[in-house]
C-alpha cells in the first residue's frame, strides 16, 4: 500500500528543507522596488528643483548686492506715478509708516510707467499685456485698483518691510534680505524678489478656500453617510466625485467670467479678481477630494456604534455628530490635509481668478499672487540661469517643503492630539 | 403573573416577504429576568430588537400586531421612537463601547439628554459604574480609551452606559456569548442584582445561563413562540416535546 500511495509525507529533514521560490521572491522584490521608486522619484524631483535654485545662495550674493546698490541709487530719483500724485500723498495711503525712499522702490521704484506692466508679466509687450491683465489701464486707473482701499494695512507688513529694509542697509550681502521683503518685482531695471507678499497671498487663498470647502464637504459627507437613503447616496456620491475630474482650467474660467462678477455685485469690492473669488473657485476644486475621503471614513465607522447610540435614546443628529463624526476624525483630518495640499499647489485657478497682484494685505477682497501662480506665469519667460529663474525654482522647493512640513506636523502632532481629544487616551 | 410590563399581541414581523416572527403572543413580568432561548435563526434576537424598535433601522422590515409596554402600543404612529429607546435600553452581543474615553462612554447618554453639569455627570458616571460592578476596576483610568479594556470590562461598561440613562427595561442580546467564564459569571451576577430595579429580557444560547439567571423562560423555534413559563417548570417538566428535545440537547 505504501508503494502505491506516495502522497503521505514524512517529517524528515529532507521534506522540510527550506525551498527557494523564485517567482514569489521576484514578485516581492518588484513590488517593493516600485514602492521605493516612487519615493525616490519624489526625492529626485525635489533635489532637481532645489539644485536649480542654488545659484541664489552662491552667485546671488554679488548680484543682489549690485541690485541693492542700484536700488539705493534709484531711490534718489523722484519717480512716482508720472506726477499724478506726489510721493507724500502716496505714502499714507499705501504703506503708512514706511519711509518714503523705501516705499517707491518697493512698489514701483525706478520703473517708468511703461515698465509698470511688465513687472507682472515680464517680457510681454505693453500692448499685449494691457487687455489681458488690466484692460485699458491708464495710470490713474491702476492705482485705485491695486492700492485703493488698503487703509487696513496689516501691522506685520509694516514691520517686515521696515525690518528688512534696515537689514538691507546694514549687511546687504545676504540673499535672504532680498527674499524676505514684500515687493515682488522680478522684471525691471532693479529686480526685487520679495517672497513675503506671495506667501501671504498663498496662505490667504488657502485659508479662505478651506474655510469654505471644509464645512461644506464634511457636512455633505455626513449627510450621505448617516442620513441619505441608499438610493440618494448612489446618486449624490458619483456626482460630487465627478467634480474632481473637472479640469481646473474650466473652474478657473468659470470663476473668472461668472463668479467674479457675481460676487462683486454682491459684496461691492474694488478689484474684481481677488483672494476671495480665487478661494471659492479653489474650494470647488477641493470639495470633491475632501468629500470623497471623509465620506469613506464616515461610512466605515462600524454600524455597532450607531446602533449603540440609537439604543441609548439618541436621535439621528446626535448620533451623527457625537458618535460617527468623532469616530471618523483621523480620516476626515487626512481628507482636509489633501484638500489643503490641492489648494496650496493649485496653479491654473490661482492664475486665472486671484488677480495676480503681489500685495501685502489682510483684506480678503484684495488681489493676491500665490506661489504656484507665480511659477506658472513667469517660468516660461525667464532667462535660464538668471536670478529670477533660480528664485522661481526656490519657490518651487518652498512649496514642496511647506506641504511636506504641513503633512508631517499634521501626521505626528495634530492628529495624535485630535484622536486623544475625541477618542480618549 | 402579576405586574405585566410588556404585553405582546399577535406580533408578526416580515423581512420583505419572509415572515420571521409568527403571531407572537406573550407577557413579560415586571422586575423579573425573562430568558429567550432557542436555536440560531429562530427569531429571538429579532423579537428582542422589536421591543425597542431597533428593527426600524432595517428598511425592509414591516411589523403587524401589538407591542404594549405598560399599556402603550410602541408601534403607534404618535409614539416617538427616541423616547422609547430612552426607556428601553439595550446591551448588544458584541460589546460596542464608543471610541471615546471610559468617562465619556458612560456620560454620553446623559449628555444627549442635555445634562452638562460636570458634578452631576460625575455622579451619574460613578453610580452607573458602581451598579455595573466595574467602578473599582476603572475609577483610576476614566480618561483612558474604552477600546483598551478587556472584552468582559467592555461589556460591563456597555451595561453601565445603558444604566446611565436610567431605563425601565434592559434588553440583553447574548451579552456573555463572547466572554470567558469569569466575565460571564460577573455579568450573570450583575443581571441578578439589576432585576431589583429593572425588567430584564435576556437572549441566550447557553442553557445553563438561562437556568441560572432567569425567572421566566420563553422558547422560540422557527419564528414561533413554542412555550413560555417559569424557568423551573420549563427546565424540569416542559409541556411541549420540542422544548424538551431542545433543552436536553437532542437538537438545536
Automatic annotation (TrEMBL), chain A:
Cross-referenced Gene3D superfamilies: MetI-like
GO biological process: phosphate ion transport
Domain of life: Bacteria
Boundaries of every ABC transmembrane type-1 domain copy: 199-410
This protein's GO CC annotations: plasma membrane
Location relative to the cell: Cell membrane
Region of interest: Disordered: 68-130
Keywords attached to this entry: Cell membrane, Membrane, Phosphate transport, Transmembrane, Transmembrane helix, Transport
Membrane topology: Multi-pass membrane protein
GO MF: phosphate transmembrane transporter activity
Membrane spanning stretches: 30-50, 198-223, 243-263, 275-293, 320-340, 391-414
InterPro entries noted in UniProt: MetI-like (IPR000515), MetI-like_sf (IPR035906), Phosphate_PstC (IPR011864)
UniProt similarity note: Belongs to the binding-protein-dependent transport system permease family. CysTW subfamily.
Function field: Part of the binding-protein-dependent transport system for phosphate; probably responsible for the translocation of the substrate across the membrane.
Designated name of the protein: Phosphate transport system permease protein
Natural source organism: Flavobacterium sufflavum
Gene from which the chain derives: pstC
TrEMBL record, chain B:
SMART domains (UniProt xref): AAA
Phylogenetic classification of the source organism: Bacteria, Pseudomonadati, Bacteroidota, Flavobacteriia, Flavobacteriales
GO CC annotations on file: plasma membrane
NCBIfam families according to UniProt: 3a0107s01c2
Gene Ontology terms, MF aspect: ATP binding; ATP hydrolysis activity; phosphate transmembrane transporter activity
Transmembrane segments: none
GO biological process: phosphate ion transmembrane transport
Pfam family, one: ABC_tran
Name of the protein: Phosphate ABC transporter ATP-binding protein
Amino acid at each position: 500500500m505504501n508503494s502505491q500511495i506516495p502522497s503521505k509525507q514524512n517529517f524528515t529533514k529532507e521534506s522540510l528543507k527550506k525551498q527557494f521560490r523564485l517567482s514569489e521572491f521576484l514578485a516581492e522584490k518588484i513590488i517593493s522596488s516600485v514602492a521605493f521608486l516612487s519615493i525616490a522619484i519624489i526625492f529626485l524631483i525635489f533635489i532637481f528643483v532645489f539644485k536649480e535654485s542654488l545659484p541664489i545662495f552662491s552667485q546671488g550674493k554679488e548680484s543682489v548686492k549690485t541690485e541693492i546698490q542700484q536700488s539705493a541709487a534709484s531711490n534718489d530719483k523722484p519717480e512716482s506715478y508720472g506726477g499724478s500724485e506726489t510721493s507724500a500723498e502716496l505714502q499714507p495711503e499705501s504703506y503708512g509708516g514706511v519711509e518714503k525712499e523705501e516705499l517707491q522702490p518697493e512698489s514701483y521704484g525706478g520703473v517708468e510707467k511703461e515698465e509698470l506692466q511688465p513687472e507682472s508679466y515680464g517680457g510681454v509687450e505693453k500692448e499685449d499685456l494691457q487687455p489681458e491683465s488690466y484692460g485699458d489701464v491708464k495710470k490713474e486707473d491702476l492705482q485705485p485698483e491695486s492700492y485703493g482701499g488698503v487703509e487696513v494695512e496689516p501691522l506685520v507688513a509694516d514691520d517686515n518691510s521696515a525690518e528688512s529694509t534696515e537689514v538691507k542697509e546694514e549687511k546687504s550681502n545676504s540673499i535672504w534680505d532680498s527674499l524676505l521683503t514684500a515687493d515682488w518685482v522680478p522684471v525691471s531695471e532693479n529686480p526685487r524678489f520679495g517672497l513675503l507678499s506671495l506667501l501671504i497671498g498663498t496662505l490667504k487663498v488657502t485659508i479662505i478656500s478651506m474655510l469654505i470647502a471644509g464645512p461644506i464637504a464634511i457636512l455633505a459627507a455626513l449627510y450621505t453617510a448617516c442620513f441619505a437613503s441608499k438610493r440618494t447616496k448612489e446618486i449624490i456620491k458619483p456626482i460630487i466625485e465627478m467634480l474632481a475630474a473637472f479640469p481646473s482650467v474650466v473652474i478657473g474660467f468659470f470663476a473668472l467670467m461668472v463668479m467674479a462678477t457675481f460676487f462683486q455685485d454682491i459684496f461691492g469690492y474694488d478689484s474684481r479678481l481677488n483672494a476671495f473669488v480665487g478661494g471659492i473657485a479653489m474650494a470647488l476644486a477641493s470639495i470633491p477630494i475632501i468629500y470623497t475621503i471623509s465620506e469613506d471614513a464616515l461610512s466605515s465607522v462600524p454600524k455597532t456604534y450607531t446602533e449603540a447610540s440609537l439604543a441609548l435614546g439618541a436621535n439621528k443628529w446626535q448620533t451623527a455628530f457625537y458618535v460617527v463624526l468623532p469616530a471618523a476624525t483621523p480620516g476626515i483630518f487626512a481628507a482636509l490635509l489633501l484638500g489643503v495640499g490641492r489648494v496650496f499647489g493649485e496653479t491654473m485657478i490661482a492664475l486665472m481668478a486671484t488677480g495676480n497682484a503681489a500685495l501685502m494685505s489682510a483684506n480678503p477682497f484684495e488681489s493676491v499672487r500665490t506661489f504656484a501662480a507665480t511659477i506658472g506665469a513667469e517660468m516660461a519667460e525667464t532667462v535660464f540661469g538668471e536670478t529670477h529663474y533660480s528664485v522661481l525654482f526656490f519657490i518651487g522647493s518652498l512649496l514642496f517643503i511647506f506641504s511636506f512640513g504641513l503633512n508631517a506636523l499634521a501626521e505626528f502632532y495634530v492628529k495624535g492630539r485630535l484622536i486623544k481629544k475625541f477618542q480618549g487616551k | 403573573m402579576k405586574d405585566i410590563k410588556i404585553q405582546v399581541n399577535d406580533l408578526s414581523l416580515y423581512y420583505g416577504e419572509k415572515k420571521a416572527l409568527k403571531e407572537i403572543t406573550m407577557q413579560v413580568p415586571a422586575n423579573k429576568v425573562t430568558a429567550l432561548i432557542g436555536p440560531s435563526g429562530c427569531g429571538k434576537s429579532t423579537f428582542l430588537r422589536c421591543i425597542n424598535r431597533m428593527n426600524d433601522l432595517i428598511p425592509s422590515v414591516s411589523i403587524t400586531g401589538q407591542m404594549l409596554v405598560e399599556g402603550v402600543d410602541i408601534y403607534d404612529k404618535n409614539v416617538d421612537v427616541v423616547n422609547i429607546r430612552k426607556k428601553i435600553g439595550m446591551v448588544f452581543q458584541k460589546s460596542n463601547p464608543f471610541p471615546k474615553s471610559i468617562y465619556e462612554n458612560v456620560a454620553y447618554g446623559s449628555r444627549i439628554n442635555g445634562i452638562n453639569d460636570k458634578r452631576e455627570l460625575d455622579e451619574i458616571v460613578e453610580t452607573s459604574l458602581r451598579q455595573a460592578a466595574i467602578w473599582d476596576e476603572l475609577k483610576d483610568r476614566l480618561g483612558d480609551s474604552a477600546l483598551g479594556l478587556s472584552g468582559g470590562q467592555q461589556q460591563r461598561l456597555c451595561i453601565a452606559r445603558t444604566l446611565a440613562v436610567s431605563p425601565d427595561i434592559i434588553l440583553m442580546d447574548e451579552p456573555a456569548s463572547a466572554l470567558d467564564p469569569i466575565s460571564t459569571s460577573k455579568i450573570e451576577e450583575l443581571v441578578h442584582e439589576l432585576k431589583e430595579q429593572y425588567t430584564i429580557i435576556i437572549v441566550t444560547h447557553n442553557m445553563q445561563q438561562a437556568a441560572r439567571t432567569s425567572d421566566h423562560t420563553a422558547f422560540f423555534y422557527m419564528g414561533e413562540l413554542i412555550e413560555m413559563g417559569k424557568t423551573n417548570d420549563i427546565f424540569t417538566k416542559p409541556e411541549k416535546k420540542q422544548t424538551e428535545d431542545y433543552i436536553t440537547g437532542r437538537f438545536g
